[in-house]
Write a structure and sequence with these properties.
Blueprint: E1 3-12, E2 17-27, E3 30-41, H1 43-56, E4 63-68, H2 71-78, H3 81-87, H4 100-112, E5 114-119, H5 127-144, E6 167-176, E7 180-188, E8 194-202, E9 205-210, E10 216-224, E11 229-233, E12 236-238, H6 245-257, E13 259-260, E14 263-271, E15 280-287, E16 290-291, E17 303-308, H7 309-317, H8 324-333
Parallel strand pairs: 1-4, 4-5, 9-15
Antiparallel strand pairs: 1-2, 2-3, 6-7, 7-8, 9-12, 10-11, 10-17, 13-16, 14-15
Length: 337
């Protein structure tokens, strides 16, 4: 289970008045800052909103440490007050509970994750707490200065129609290997806030759907350690720097299957996982096959599998094939069969 450290803070000018919240999420070497606010709010609402928005970003169950300088929030959860409020229908025994909808939302998020609450001293020497305070004050100032419309507080619940471009401020390379390198970039978002992007830089690759005169498709079976299983795939390989994808596809077909392409056409190019990987795949369609010479890479162990194309297509449709480039290539080639 991943361990995530979260620092949060809230700020309000007037209490009630324009307010802002902020959070810093850290997991290993990755750090992400978020902030937002409301035009007419309270300090306690912003102190609650910070951990809520941070926990919402976690895509899987995690071990979470949340650091806050708010006794109101930390004590409510670490001392078990919130459990009593829940048992009492989100009410206090001696009267109404303030911000019940936010407390309930935060409680439900904490039930999914393993959360530990830690109180820190505000405005002291904790760099992350001080940074959260800075971000929360900045967010509140946008509302105080009239730079944010009344509807911005709920902007995440409405359709967005503004600019999309993200500007890279700086990039650090964390790892460089034989196949790819890993970068972490600080970016400026369309609304002026900053965030981080984790990117795998890859030269790209080429893959080929090869069909013989009897409408058989050539596939290769190999063990993929990332998936933890053997997989059937169309022949494919990594581009060398500056290499023509067509030449790569022709080379990989012969090296992996021992077949040469008589006729070849480009089907399409695609980004398989553009959320974090820059790899661009170029998919080709080959016919007029003739025998060539197998020449596997030194660490490449695979079986050549020849199947009727219709069988391979049915395997895609019933979920037996689960490699993205292979699925896309077979579906595209169907129109030529």
């Amino acid at each position: 289970m991943k361990k995530v450290v979260i620092y949060t803070d809230g700020a309000c000018s007037g209490n009630p008045g324009p307010g802002g919240y902020a959070a810093i999420l850290m997991c290993g070497d990755v750090k992400k800052e978020i902030s937002g606010g409301e035009k007419d709010t309270t300090n306690n609402r912003m102190e609650l909103r910070g951990p809520i928005e941070a926990l919402k970003l976690l895509k899987e169950k995690c071990e979470v440490e949340i650091y806050s300088d708010s006794s109101y929030v930390v004590d409510a959860f670490s001392k078990g007050w919130v459990q009593g409020w829940r048992n009492n229908g989100w009410k206090r025994k001696d009267g109404p509970l303030k911000n019940p909808e936010l407390i309930k939302e935060l409680y439900e998020l904490c039930q999914y994750h393993n959360v530990k609450w830690i109180k820190v001293k505000g405005h002291a020497d904790n760099e992350y707490n001080n940074r959260c305070d800075e971000l929360a004050v900045q967010a509140a100032a946008k509302y105080k200065n009239g730079n944010v419309s009344e509807n911005t507080a709920s902007v995440r619940d409405t359709e967005y129609s503004g600019e999309l471009f993200e500007k890279i401020i700086k990039t650090d390379t964390l790892f460089t290997g034989r196949v790819f390198k890993v970068e972490v970039s600080e970016v400026e978002l369309p609304d002026g806030q900053r965030s981080t992007r984790e990117i795998i830089r890859h030269n790209g690759g080429a893959a080929i759907v090869a069909i013989d005169e009897n409408n058989n498709i050539f596939l290769v079976k190999q063990y993929r350690i990332a998936a933890g299983q053997e997989m059937l795939e169309i022949p494919a390989g990594k581009l060398e720097i500056g290499e023509d994808p067509l030449n790569c596809a022709i080379r990989e077909l012969e090296e992996e299957t021992g077949m040469q392409a008589g006729e070849i056409k480009h089907l399409f190019s695609m980004y398989a996982t553009p959320g974090y990987c820059a790899e661009k795949l170029h998919i080709y369609f080959a016919t007029g096959l003739k025998p060539g010479h197998i020449h596997r890479d030194e660490e490449e162990f695979l079986h050549v599998i020849k199947l009727p194309f219709d069988i391979a297509y049915k395997m895609v449709m019933n979920g037996q094939l689960n490699d993205a480039k292979t699925i896309a290539g077979i579906l595209a080639a169907k129109s030529f069969m």
